[in-house]
Amino acid sequence: MLLELTIKNFAIIEKQIINFENGLTVLTGETGAGKSIIIDAIGILVGGRSSTEFIRHGSDKAELEGFFSFNSTSHPAILKARELDIDVEEETLVFRREISINGKSTCKINGKMVTLATLKEIGRKVIDIHGQHEHQELMDSELHLTLLDKFGIDKIKPFFDAYQMAFNQYTKTVLELRKLNQNDQQLAQRLDLIQFQFDEISKANVNSGEDELLLEEKSKLNNFEKIFSKMQGAYNALSGESSGLEAIGLARRELESIEGYSEEYKKISETISNAYYALEDVSYSIHSELENFEFDAERLEEVENRLDEINHLKRKYGQSIEEILTYRNKIETEIDEIKNKESRLDQLNSQLSQENEVLHKHATELTEVRKQCAQTLEKLIHQELQDLYMEKAKFQVHFEKIAPNKNGFDEIEFYITTNPGEPLKPLSKTASGGELSRIMLAIKNIFTKLQGITTIIFDEIDSGVSGRVAQAIAEKMFSISMESQVLCISHLPHVAAMADSQMFISKVQEEETTRTSVTILNEKGRIQEIAKMISGNNITAHTNDHIREMLEQARLFKETNKK
User: Fold this and answer.
1) Is residue 397 part of a domain?
2) Average pLDDT over residues 111-118
3) 156, 214, 452, 559: least CB-packed within 10 angstroms?
């Protein structure tokens, strides 16, 4: 949910810090006071289109910052942020956006600079803004299939996973066939190239780990004099005149003569004897190395030439000998396939025919279970529409069969008609107004949980309704707010009365400037503001009593529906 919003030098807002609560928050106030400006600020903050026209007159830049909190580390926005290496602590995200007078816009999430595309991608997982002419995700027909699959995930997923496995195998075979069906000239050229590469690698006869042994040998040959000198010095120290071994041998003989007097003497004698024999073995080893140690210039040249040959192969075929050998095995298989093209084509065509049957079987099963879930969804949305006094409306999940793709053979779009006798039409082409507002509320109430959106904003979508419809809209907004935070700009007293929190937006003129003020209303303030929404400035005691009754009815409704 959105916990805090900071707006600075944006439109007529000089600086405003707004704290939000969970549940349903309604923004009320006179037209032009700045309610929609706040919603515009939120929209731009999460990736909406910006303009220098939003910068407050006389300022160099506008600054927007929003603090969001999530109730799960697996929320899609949190997961996407971590995927992009954005530091996330305590399940919170801080969005920040600056719009400069020169037209540049900077975007940050948790202090990390991000692109506008990234800001928008994560932002749409956090906030959904819906206005009278702004349909967003639910009006995007390309997302309807995803929404249906989320709605029926428990039933659909097993069939979807089985289909995808079949589709991936089918696609792999199609690509292999397409590759083999290239024209003969291309295949001949390809064969010449990979045959040359295979022969070059095979002729080199490289072995795993060979380069490491060669580098070690090269190092020894290049440092021959130093190694010989140090080995000779070590040998002389052990076995030369006044050598260490001679002195240790004397100590060993002396201690052996007294080891019978004490266990401690015996331990000391054994320790020095072990050291003597170990050093004697080392001395023999060093002597043997020195006898066989000689500089071989020809061998050094052979080692360097061999390393050059291996490095040449690495530059062409892989960063290691293992990668070179893997590439050789890969092109060996391809050479065999090209040389036996006709046989392989017959084999792949037969395989593709079988895989096509399996694919259609899984696609048919997937379509069938989707249609079952679609029927359930249609019933739920019809009930939602009835709650909103649209008893005659019909909602349908429309299926079209298309060419196979990763999601199946189904193209899905939501259709609706609001009047008896009229044909069903795509939701995206439904007229705006009061009916559209109710349709969207009905659909959102079903899909709020599925989308994972933490904050939903309704910008004056209740225009053109009144009476019992207005009350139904208020109740539906509250229902949505039990799953997601809801911010709503409204001129309906029914919606304002249903709010958990009500903000009064006013415009204040100071000398030659104008600024927007945001006040969180207490109960008395709410009564006064809702009374103005009903009676204007002609407020009577009867009006106030009526408002108190509305607030009490709203409270009882919320308490009943929260249980």
Assistant:
1) no
2) 92
3) 559
Residues sharing a CB contact under 8 Å with residue 504, sequence separation 6 or more, in sequence order: 28, 29, 518, 519, 520, 521, 525, 529
Last residue of a domain, one of 290, 310, 334: 334
Same domain, 129 and 222: no
Give me the pLDDT at residue 410, please. 95
Statement to judge: residues 114 and 220 lie in one domain = no
Residue 6 tokens read as 């900071």
Q: Are residues 8 and 128 in the same domain?
A: yes
Residue 252, amino acid: R
> Which residue type sits at 174?
V
H or E segment at 221? helix 210-222
To the question of pTM greater than 0.85 for the whole model, the response is: no
- State the pLDDT confidence band at 542, using cuts at 50, 70 and 90: confident
Q: Domain of residue 116: give its range.
A: 2-133+437-445+454-562
- Percentages of the chain per state (helix, strand, coil), in multiples of 5: 60, 20, 20
Residue 2 neighbours by CB under 8 Å, 6+ apart: 20, 42, 66, 67, 68, 127, 454, 455, 485, 487
C-alpha span between 172 and 166 (Å, rounded): 10
SS3 state of residue 199:
helix
Per-residue pLDDT band at 152 (split at 50, 70, 90): very high
Q: Among 334, 360, 392, give the residue marking a domain's end.
A: 334
Decide if 407 is inside a domain: no
The verdict on 214 and 324 lying in the same domain is yes
Question: How far is Cα of residue 284 from the mean position of the Cα atoms in its chain?
Answer: 65
**Is the separation of the CB atoms in 441 and 388 below 8 Å?**
yes
The token duo for 334 is: 């391809």
113 plus 222 within the same structural domain: no
Q: Is 491 exposed, middle or buried (0-12, 13-18, 19+ CB in 10 A)?
A: middle
Report if residue 383 sits inside a domain: no
Q: With 0-12 CB in 10 A as exposed, 13-18 as middle and 19+ as buried, what is 64?
A: buried
Encode pLDDT of 56-88 as tens digits.
988 999 999 999 998 888 888 999 999 999 998
Q: Give the CATH number for residue 552.
A: 3.40.50.300
Task: Give whole-number Cα distances, 102 to 9, 38, 76, 98, 303, in Å.
Answer: 15, 23, 34, 11, 62
Beta-strand pair 105-109/24-28: unpaired
Contact 300, 222 (CB under 8 A): yes
Pair (122, 216) in one structural domain: no
Q: Residue 397, Cβ neighbours under 10 Å: how many? A: 23
- Run of H or E including 263: helix 263-292
Residue 263, domain member (yes or no):
yes
215 and 126 together in one domain: no
**Number of domains composing the chain:** 2
